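[agent] plan:
  1. take the single chain provided in the ticket
  2. run structure prediction with default settings
  3. attach structure tokens to the ticket
  4. add a short note for the reviewer (M.T.)
[agent] executing step 1
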Amino acid sequence: MAKDTGADGPAKKARAKGAKSAKAPARAYERPRGGEARAISDLVPEIGRTAFRKFGFIQSSVVSRWREIVGDRLADVTQPAMIRFPVGQKAGGTLHLTISGAHAPMLQHVAPDIIGAVNRFFGYAAIAGVRMTHGHVTPAAPVQPPAMLKPVPAELGDSLRDIGDPELRTVLERMAAGLAAPAKLPRIS
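[agent] step 2 finished; step 3 output follows
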């Protein structure tokens, strides 16, 4: 057998390196299957939270509960746009509001009340100032209080009357009344 000469050695090393890098392609990542299914209601707050944080809202509930925070009169003409905090802090921020029409002079007078209402909602002095810009505000639908229900029918027994939480009892009473009602076609408006 003949011994390899040095001239052919580097070419073999290059081919050997090329052979190593030409391995089978790496498999694409496959998400592990299984696990329990999650309800959409569990996923939506996470998606919304990401979007709201991107646009300056730490808590999305400020937008969704704006009518409860400032009242019907102010909610009809204002809409929160974003909250900007000083770098590295979560207090002393500026609430940016979009205002419709010529309501700015009136809202400048009630700005301290808006700041107080938002800070009460947060539970600490999160907002120190308000910046207002003109724009189109779509008034949100007013919050409807739950309808008063008829007393629980006697045929259901005392099972619903023993429930201590009034909100849960109301929901269960509504469900029982809906099940007891005759079936009818849903109304589409």
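[agent] step 4 note for reviewer: The CA atoms of residues 14 and 65 lie 67 Å apart.
[agent] ticket updated
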